[in-house]
Automatic annotation (TrEMBL):
<dbReference type="GO" id="GO:0032259">
    <property type="term" value="P:methylation"/>
</dbReference>
<dbReference type="InterPro" id="IPR015813">
    <property type="entry name" value="Pyrv/PenolPyrv_kinase-like_dom"/>
</dbReference>
<comment type="similarity">
    <text>Belongs to the PanB family.</text>
</comment>
<keyword id="KW-0489">Methyltransferase</keyword>
<dbReference type="InterPro" id="IPR040442">
    <property type="entry name" value="Pyrv_kinase-like_dom_sf"/>
</dbReference>
<dbReference type="GO" id="GO:0003864">
    <property type="term" value="F:3-methyl-2-oxobutanoate hydroxymethyltransferase activity"/>
</dbReference>
<keyword id="KW-0566">Pantothenate biosynthesis</keyword>
<feature type="binding site">
    <location>
        <position position="45"/>
    </location>
    <ligand>
        <name>Mg(2+)</name>
    </ligand>
</feature>
<protein>
    <recommendedName>
        <fullName>3-methyl-2-oxobutanoate hydroxymethyltransferase</fullName>
        <ecNumber>2.1.2.11</ecNumber>
    </recommendedName>
</protein>
<dbReference type="GO" id="GO:0000287">
    <property type="term" value="F:magnesium ion binding"/>
</dbReference>
<keyword id="KW-0479">Metal-binding</keyword>
<feature type="binding site">
    <location>
        <position position="84"/>
    </location>
    <ligand>
        <name>Mg(2+)</name>
    </ligand>
</feature>
<dbReference type="GO" id="GO:0008168">
    <property type="term" value="F:methyltransferase activity"/>
</dbReference>
<dbReference type="InterPro" id="IPR003700">
    <property type="entry name" value="Pantoate_hydroxy_MeTrfase"/>
</dbReference>
<keyword id="KW-0808">Transferase</keyword>
<dbReference type="GO" id="GO:0015940">
    <property type="term" value="P:pantothenate biosynthetic process"/>
</dbReference>
<keyword id="KW-0460">Magnesium</keyword>
Length: 278
């Protein structure tokens, strides 16, 4: 089975076939997504929030990203695996960043990295690409730079904002990205960017006109607690099913229904407790 690569994604853009992306963090979820035919598995830096209960993505370490990216890479046979570079890495001195990038790329087995940001990210994108490392861009909403993700708003609501986003999109394309993630961009602005760029656009909360669409796996599976953004569609309600399953387990144990005869291992010889002490 051929691995999804940049050429395949550009071919999908040209043919009008939508690209699919899911944000995943672990082996089992990644394996299921890969088997389902998801094109891109993005290991995002919000892992620290969704799996470890932290309040912001900036607390995510490089070591955590490497750990989770390796797990996802082991799970995926077809999908392209992309590692989101955390804020702590993007803030390194340039030489340290490039050395760390080469090490991380080799250690994780991913096929690409994602660098978030506009004009401030262009030089990083250019230098990473020069190392032969494929880079996905990320514009629109920039979670690494926001202190409050709950009250964030869609990007590109005015002509001025739309023009600025288009300018940034062109800059990151010129810098060498093979695709760009549009995060919480209005549908109209995302459509303009998609039409203008020769590389694929993948929208998360960015409407119907992008070349591809992405969702956080925990959101589409219904695992994320509390409110989810407007753009999320839940394809199942796994959290409720998890809670109900745990309740059934508690009840069965308390009432003596689990383990049952079919769940136990049997000795091949007769075991008499007091004789074991002799």
């Amino acid at each position: 089975m051929a691995r999804v690569d940049a050429a395949y994604l550009i071919q999908k853009k040209s043919s009008g076939n939508k690209i699919t992306l899911s944000i995943v963090y672990d082996f089992s979820t990644a394996q299921a997504a890969d088997q389902a035919g998801i094109d891109i598995l993005l290991v995002n830096d919000d892992v620290n929030m969704l799996l470890y209960g932290e309040s912001h993505v900036t607390s995510t370490t490089v070591e955590q990203m490497v750990y989770h990216a390796r797990a996802v890479s082991r799970a995926a046979d077809r999908a392209q695996v992309v590692l989101d570079l955390p804020a702590s890495m993007l803030q390194m001195e340039r030489g340290d960043f490039l050395r760390r990038l080469e090490t991380v790329f080799a250690e994780t087995g991913v096929q690409a990295v994602k660098i978030e940001g506009g004009a401030e990210a262009v030089s990083l994108i250019r230098e990473a690409s020069a190392l032969g490392i494929p880079v996905m861009g990320h514009i629109g909403l920039n979670p690494k730079r926001l202190s409050d993700l709950v009250h964030c708003t869609a990007q590109g609501k005015t002509r001025e904002q739309a023009a600025e986003l288009l300018k940034v999109a062109r800059e990151v394309e010129k810098a060498g990205v093979y695709a760009v993630l549009l995060d919480a961009v209005t549908e109209e602005t995302a459509a303009c960017i998609t039409e203008e760029l020769s590389i694929p656009t993948i929208g998360i909360g960015s409407g119907r006109k992008c070349d591809g669409v992405g969702l956080v796996s925990f959101d589409l599976l219904g695992i994320t607690p509390g409110r989810v953004p407007k753009f999320v569609k839940k394809y199942c309600h796994a959290r409720e099913e998890f809670v109900e399953a745990f309740k059934c387990f508690v009840r069965d144990v308390r009432e003596g229904r689990y383990p049952g005869p079919e769940h136990v291992y049997r000795a091949r010889e007769r075991i008499i407790c007091h004789k074991l002490k002799e």
